[in-house]
């Protein structure tokens, strides 16, 4: 987490600690447009996107938020130009190597969620190493959704539950939400309280379809590389104005 905003920052006085989301999820959109606006190649947008994500992780940690989940690469993103996909895979590996030590020091538990077997083998090894090294860290959980698709996650959970039923380990009428959740990539994480999407698009894009059932959604026109601490402050202020009813009156 070598960031531009390094010193510990306290929770702004207008935010109420007891009303903070426990878990924030972000759809980091707009890296390409950010670069294009500046006449830069798209990959520069992704580089700056990583900086924005590191800063957000630091802010979440400083302000006492317990989990952050970021959409880094979707199952559909393989359809991008080959050089861009290759750049992103290399970037993920490099960021992991560079940041691991600091994540250990800062007590960050990093977890990659998604269909990880399709990723380059070298990256898979880096991911396994980082996840194993930080698995007992408790200050903040940082989930990176990589080769992630919400429908695929639900399908894979169904397959694995069906397998248990077929083996006689589970009865169909025993399948409830708690059991289903245990078969998702995100097993063990609480659901996001707040989902932020940058760059103004009004869609979910196959992200955390099961988990966001009751999440509050905040959409900003800001492009992801410009999503800084002030923007996050605004998102949290908006979140704290919301009345969460979870289907009740
Ligand atoms: C979407 O912008 C962004 C991505 C596909 C990449 C996001 C990745 C990160 C923020 C890095 C996370 C990595 C780690 C390992 C922590 P876009 O390309 O869709 O932008 P556009 O919609 O303007 O084209």
From TrEMBL:
SUPFAM superfamilies: Undecaprenyl diphosphate synthase. The keyword Membrane does not apply. It comes from the Bacteria. Mg(2+) binds at residues 29, 216. Binds 2 magnesium ions per subunit. GO terms for molecular function: ditrans,polycis-polyprenyl diphosphate synthase [(2E,6E)-farnesyl diphosphate specific] activity; magnesium ion binding. The active site is at 29, 77 (proton acceptor). Its EC number is 2.5.1.-. The keyword Metal-binding applies. It is an enzyme of class 2 (transferase). CDD domains: Cis_IPPS. Substrate binds at residues 30-34, 42, 46, 74-76, 78, 80, 197, 203-205. Its cofactor is Mg(2+). Keywords: Magnesium, Metal-binding, Transferase. One of its GO terms (biological process) is polyprenol biosynthetic process. HAMAP family: ISPT. Catalyzes the condensation of isopentenyl diphosphate (IPP) with allylic pyrophosphates generating different type of terpenoids. Belongs to the UPP synthase family. Homodimer. This is Isoprenyl transferase.
């Amino acid at each position: 987490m070598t960031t531009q905003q390094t010193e510990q920052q306290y929770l702004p006085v207008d935010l109420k600690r007891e009303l903070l989301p426990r878990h924030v999820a972000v759809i980091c959109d707009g890296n390409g447009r950010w670069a294009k606006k500046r006449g830069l190649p798209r990959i520069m947008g992704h580089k700056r996107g990583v900086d924005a994500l590191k800063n957000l992780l630091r802010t979440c940690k400083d302000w006492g938020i317990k989990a952050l989940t970021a959409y880094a690469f979707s199952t559909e993103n393989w359809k991008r130009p080959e050089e861009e996909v290759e750049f992103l895979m290399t970037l993920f590996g490099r960021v992991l190597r560079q940041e691991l030590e600091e994540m250990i020091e800062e007590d960050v538990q990093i977890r990659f969620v998604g269909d990880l077997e399709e990723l380059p083998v070298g990256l898979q090894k880096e991911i396994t190493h980082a996840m194993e090294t930080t698995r007992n860290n408790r200050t903040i959980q940082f989930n990176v959704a990589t080769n992630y698709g919400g429908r695929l996650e639900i399908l894979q959970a169904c397959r694995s539950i069906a397998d248990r039923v077929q083996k006689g380990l589970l009865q169909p009428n025993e399948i409830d939400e708690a059991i289903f959740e245990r078969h998702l990539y995100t097993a063990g994480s609480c659901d996001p309280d707040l989902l932020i999407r940058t760059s103004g698009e009004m869609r979910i894009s196959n992200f955390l379809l099961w988990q966001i059932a009751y999440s509050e959604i905040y959409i900003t026109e800001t492009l992801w590389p410009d999503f800084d601490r002030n923007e996050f402050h605004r998102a949290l202020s908006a979140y704290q104005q919301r009345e969460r009813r979870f289907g009740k009156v």
